[in-house]
Amino acid sequence: MKILVATQKPFASVAVEGIREIMEKAGFDLALLEKYAEKSELLDAVKDVNAIIIRSDKIDAEIMDAAPELKIIVRAGAGFDNVDLQAATQHGIVVMNTPGQNSNAVAELVFGLLLFTVRNRYNGKSGTELMGKKLGLLAFGNVPQNVARVAKGFGMDICAYDAYCPQEVFVQQGVQQMTSAEELFRMCDVVSLHIPSTPETKNSINAKLISSMKSNAILVNTARQDVINESELIRTLQERPDLRYVSDLQLAADEEAREKLGDRYFATPKKMGAQTAEANINAGLAAANQIVAFFKDGETRFQVNK
Ligand code: 3PG
């Protein structure tokens, strides 16, 4: 069995070593393709592999066509919008993710972004505190549940909206359940986005929602860039100079946003929510173990293209 780790944004080397150990113990060979710049490199690397571990790397039908032996793709992370699931199913390829494995890292970055923002980018001017502020989580999966846990330490008042999450989860976590995204945006000082990128959520964070935000509110995005309606975000923030947008994902209109919004827009230069040694180890090793279990026992628990 040949397993390829294909990561444009590499894992910490300690995670790669862990993946190698798991594969060697299982009797599998490991190939590495890191920091590749061209799709042609990936097309070449997949030609004889049986499994691939990826991060946000795009896997489309062309890659699958070039990989006749490919049986399984594991996205070491949560969101799998970078894999063409329909094409995978047509090719008879199992796609999995590793839910929850990198969520603490992303949750911690939410607070990194928030503190940087409420303390005015550490420019010396008087800022504000998080304690007592109302935090709204849009979606209530693994990442936002970790955000809620940390937010309790900051003394924030936490609520969330997630149409797909059972009521008991909100109760267990001691988080107020909102009835709609509209209510969440209207009521909170900070709104943190955790929705996946799907046809339903693309462009869904629009002028209607953003303009309804409380005065001086902050919108945080560590989810996906395409859930934002960019032109409406920029226009609304121009109309509402009290609002701020901070993100782990640069807008496609990054330059325009910087020019028009100045310090009220911040985006990390590279998506780095899950970029910690711990998250890389958790997600990378989980991916490796899932591949071994798939080939040895037919285990498909985390399959996302059923
Ligand atoms: C995820 O979906 O798991 C996160 O967005 C992290 O993505 P990354 O592995 O590309 O950093």
UniProtKB/TrEMBL annotation:
Residues annotated as domain D-isomer specific 2-hydroxyacid dehydrogenase catalytic: 20-305
What's in the keyword line of the UniProt record? NAD, Oxidoreductase
Q: Where is the D-isomer specific 2-hydroxyacid dehydrogenase NAD-binding domain?
A: 123-248
Q: Per its UniProt record, what InterPro entries does this chain match?
A: D-2-hydroxyacid_DH (IPR050857), D-isomer_2_OHA_DH_cat_dom (IPR006139), D-isomer_DH_NAD-bd (IPR006140), NAD(P)-bd_dom_sf (IPR036291)
Q: Where is the signal peptide?
A: none
Molecular function in Gene Ontology: NAD binding; oxidoreductase activity, acting on the CH-OH group of donors, NAD or NADP as acceptor
The protein's name: D-3-phosphoglycerate dehydrogenase
Give the organism the record lists: Alloprevotella rava F0323
